[in-house]
Records
---
Amino acid sequence: MTGSATITGEEQAIAAAVLRSDRFRLEREADWVRLDAMVTAMEQGRLKRLADEDVLALPVLYRHLISSLSIARESSLDAGLIAYLEALTLRAYYVVYGTRTTFGGWCRSFFGGGLSRAVRAIGFDIAVAFAAMVIGAVLGFMLVEADPQWFFRLVPAQFSDVRIPGASRDALLGTLFGKQEGDGLSVFAAYLFNNNAQVAILAFALGFAFGVPTMLLLVYNTATLGAMLWVFASRGLTVEFVGWLSIHGTTELLAILLAGAAGLHIGRALGFPGRRSHLAALSQSGRTAAQVMTGVIVMLICAGLLEGFARQLVQSTEIRYAIGYGILALWLAYFFAYRPRRS
Amino acid sequence: MARAATLGRTRGTDPRLRRTLVTPEGVALDVAVASASARIGALFIDLTILFGLVLGFVLTLMLLAWAYSTTGLPAVSDGFMNFLFVLFIIGLFLARNAYFLFFELGQRAATWGKRSVGIRVASRDGGRLTAEAIIARNLLRDIEMFLPLMFMTSGGLQGTLSEFAAWSGIIWVGIFLLFPLLNKDRLRCGDLIAGTWVVDSPRSALGAVVASGVTPALAAGDDIALPADRYRFGERELSVYGEYELQMLEQVLRTANPDALETVAATICAKIGWSAPVGDEQAFLEAYYTQLRARLERGLRFGRRRADKNS
């Protein structure tokens, strides 16, 4: 009623208002309407079109609004007014305490330090997951050495085509060098949708169950690797096999390690929340773990590209080593040595 | 008293979904957790939009490829095509996540689907909604739904999908889809991990002052008798009603439906022993409303509340 009135009209309205609570409302209404317009503009992403004085006034208007709401709740019985103030306060609250970053801004801060910080924050879990993987590999190797029949229990049938205990050296060499079946694309696709990407994601997702399935998964998967290593080692092909594996395996195993550690981090928060509530512990660890997992996804894509293309293009063991461990060194340096100052 | 305190707060939502959120300033605000039906509706809208975008993109690519082949330029090598296809697969994955991230990182914290059903993401503890939280809740969406479905589809296409794997995939997706129904805050696993929840986005419209005593003519400068002057109610007439009736009367006055005004005026008159003001219900009710509110608010300032006529 007074929104479009002249100043004298407004003053008159305030003076004429019978109720004290209505006078309270009429005196402050202009501020609320101004804040309402600003909040609406910001919700629609037109922040840049707001005038400077409006942006500066936002926190002040927000505080005024909150005190108005508190007063209105205690002194006014105008249900429509209180509902409006409640809704406007909630909207203004979402704007004032909304996300500060844009998608692009987040990407920059994430790759420029956020990811490295998150990885360092779960250092303990990484150590545990690493121990599990080493134990698994050693276990697989020793089990198959004790009794080669273990190989068929550990290694899924799809991998043990030629690569079985007792295979000839030439047959094994053939799997390491030369063109494999399929081109880069099908290898990449099979990679992305089938084996190790699934392992990494499962290792993370199963962390919910206090991390126990994650540990089992890590041990089992590296046991397979250890068993495979024994087959090649028994024919004196250790160096070549490790080279073949390293070119993408360093990235991939590191990704699985990080995914498992992220899962363990969540499982550990769930099992031992400390002084926090379970939900608070879960959400706190979940945010860290999610950042690590975003990094894992990037690493898995890199590993897929390396497996699909680089492994077949590069046939020399020395260069395979150089690429594999060069990339590993880059990852490690990025995660642990790269510490830009927090902005 | 408890009832009086809830008066004037959010109405029309399921009481089981109503929550209080305390802002960092210490003010308690009412929020309503988004219902499961709104969530699933938003998801379907988002999936439809994503599917439409992908379809449009693929069709554009096919059109380009067709245009390229008709121009008779040298054919592209297989290796290069493979490379493009791999980029396409990665691009799909990133685009799907970017869609959710981009919109939920915006000021409205809602995708198109969420916006259209009027819900948004918010931080559960009342603090700032961080980018990490958005990442976490969307990453889990992939694990909950997209990845198992993709593994199953690709396994099915390659013929490596065992019956066991198919069933476990279906159960996996089913558990995660039903998860919001199994807790009171309708949290998805991603919300649980990220410390977020999905709430109704507030809408606000400021109604005019009810019965301000100011008529448009007065605002323009003329001097007319105020409605309150024509009807004077004593203590006995005003003491029959409480806050609940006052706010019902406010609603009636805001809607200003003539039939309702007549009925309400007749009811009040019967209650206080007056004769009905035929033809002048609006002025009568405004006067009664103003004086009743003045009386109740005076009591409020002295710490005396009256929830309704029975208290």
Note: Residues 216-301 of chain B form one domain.
---
Amino acid sequence: MFKTMRASDLLKSRPEGLYCPPGDFFIDPVRPVGRALITHGHSDHARSGHRSVLATQETLDIMGLRYGEDFAGTTQAAVPGETLDMNGVAVTFHPAGHVLGSAQICVEHRGMRIVASGDYKRQKDATCLPFEPIRCDVFITEATFGLPVFRHPPDHEEIARVLKSAAQFPERSHLIGAYALGKAQRVMRLLRDAGYDKPIYIHGALAKLSEYYQSQGIDLGQLEPATVESGGKADFAGAIVVGPPSAFADRWARRFPDPISCFASGWMRIRQRAKQGGVELPLIISDHADWDELIITIKETGAAEIWVTHGREEALVRWCELEGIAARPLHLVGYEDEGD
Amino acid sequence: MNRFAELLDRLVLTPSRNGKLTLLRDYFHSVEDPDRGLALAAITGDLNIAAVKPAMLRALVVERMDPVLFGYSYDYVGDLAETVSLVWPQRQGHIPNHMPTLAEVVGRLQAASRSDGPKVLARLLDDASISARFAIIKLVTGGLRIGVSARLAKQAVADLGKVDVAEIEELWHGLTPPYTELFAWLEGRAEKPRSAALALFRPVMLSNAIDDGDLEKLDHGAYGAEWKWDGIRVQAVCEGGVRRLYSRTGDDVSGAFPDLAAAMTFEAALDGELLVGDPREATGTFSDLQQRLNRKSVSPKIQQRYPAFMRCYDALQIDGEDLRTLPFAERRKHLEAFIKTLDPSRFDLSPLVEFPDWETLERLRQTPPHPIIEGVMLKRWDSPYLAGRPKGPWFKWKRDPHTIDAVLMYAQRGHGKRSSFYSDYTFGVWSGPEGSEELVPVGKAYFGFTDEELREIDKYVRDNTIERFGPVRSVRADRRNGLVLEVAFEGLNRSTRHKSGVAMRFPRISRLRWDKPAAEADRIETLQALLD
């Protein structure tokens, strides 16, 4: 098709976030704007205070749980695969495989198609729909793990290591640090899929979101609050506890007997990161694409141009150069480099 | 190979001794011969594999990937072995149909010639998982550095067969990897291995510290006393022309002390303390001794300036006769006669300290005649030489530790049970002219306090944090604010690594001085006065 649109006129970086001038909307803006299209519910992408929000129903629900029902002026649910017209710009949401409700946003105008992938991964995940590669002219990719050192192993192998350790140290509890939205539920689901059927103890910060996942038909089994009331130290012997990583350095963790600190994150690939964080059992489980997934995805989109956002842009840009694909870093402010 | 790799991954991140022992024991229990024995040898440093230089490793990897991408990766990870294990590309279309065992990996590496070594290594890396690649690279670059001593590994092996670790140590130098006869014995499938090897290590006898009230119960006439020398406990064994100088854990340290080893021309097994100097003239200080420690090679100059000698205090065997069952008084007579036949510049006798009563000994203990004496030893005249640490026959009675009042500067989160507590403390003392004093860190301690005190310090740290870096918090500490810690330590060395120029030996928190204003903590000059 004849393209009468330049990519940089269809989407451009502004202090508020990625902006589409002909459609007059932002994607994942970090400041309150008139119209926001949101890829997924993590707080650095989904902020409250926009006049109107377009996102998948799950993402809207998650924002409601986190910010209260009045998190935006008006909301509209986007159905994956259905195209909407925004001031003449065709907008379609497609599953991103990152967390429940996560989507890529495909923006098309006058023959130019750009896919903003948000955060994504390619490994199978029972708690969300799998990523769908979309053919496009420009693919905007994250690069959280954009270095050839990041290679995520199969997640079930990582979970098997926790279960083995729990058998080796039955007198101790295993504390798994995992982000409250997505990672925590995925870890619990993986434990269930590995046949672990005892109650899983959770930190209070995980309760609402885990309940929501269960209401969406994602079975996490029996979850118990890890409160002191629910048991003394001895009762947590042999227990598996899931909570946000920050809680484990906190006084909260003192209720557990000689805990083994585990952390489920792609960063755990690097020993020194695990060591510095005092992590004894690193679990390399990530909701972001690893190096191999990034380069496979770039090839599958067939994009002639790649824009690389938050993460280690330089290595991915270098790889694209070697492959003869045009690529440049797209500097967007406000996204957490460390989020996983 | 994957099980060995997994073991290394776990060990390197497990801080507690008991945790490491559990992991090792489970490994030795569940893995079959010869893999487990080779793993044991790799950990104890007894596995012989020709080393691959880091430059060679780097060359292998940049033949296979873009050097710029490798550069980005190495910059980020910071460790060559780890970077290479992560970025090593799978060969296109190559799916290994078999994960090599540790024995196969070791076998291929040992069989490789110097010229085809890199090719063999590359082939092994092609077929391995990421963790296994890391383990293979560690094997060929020498030194696992996983925080497990040879002794701890031997302890795990001893636990497996429910025997004393001393038995393993006594056997050790007569055994070779993969130790199948050792495991067979430990699992009750065979007799204890008997070794025909010469000059084996004899497990040493250790002492207990004197506790309050112990002395009143002891009859002073039943004990002999000697100075407690603050050198290195060694065992010199010569048998049928084989000479070995062992550390107290049975490691052969002859290589580090070639001057002393060369003077070992006798048929005996002697127990004593390695010191430096010429025993006929003067004994060196601990700082002098330090010049001979942790060195890979010892130059003739250093050997001449700081000659090593052995101050002997027991004889375990002389001219083929095992003396260990004799009482100490008898062994001592044999030793005194035997020492006269040895090179007097390399061997002397640890003198007895005469004392009519405990009070006299107490005075002597407090005012020893040489700085390298750290107290007195009490040995029962009628006791045989027993391996391990039997309660009763031998006591150490150390001089009181030095103490200093220092100010808490940084606190770091602990591990395991203590992972939610700030339990590792860096403390400092005042330095600089009056009116513009500042704290200089002089040491770090993480024990000596009760659980209750730990909770109090933890709260203090959280309430007085001024800055955070990762697991470390910087704590408010100035002339008016600050927590004063009384720190006990055994001695002080000069240090070029620390800004303060001193390094404490065995520091621990002896008291919390909530009552003491920070400005009244000690000054650096107090410590400097203790140096030599």
Note: Helices of chain A lie at 7-10, 57-67, 155-168, 183-193, 207-215, 271-276, 291-301, 313-323.
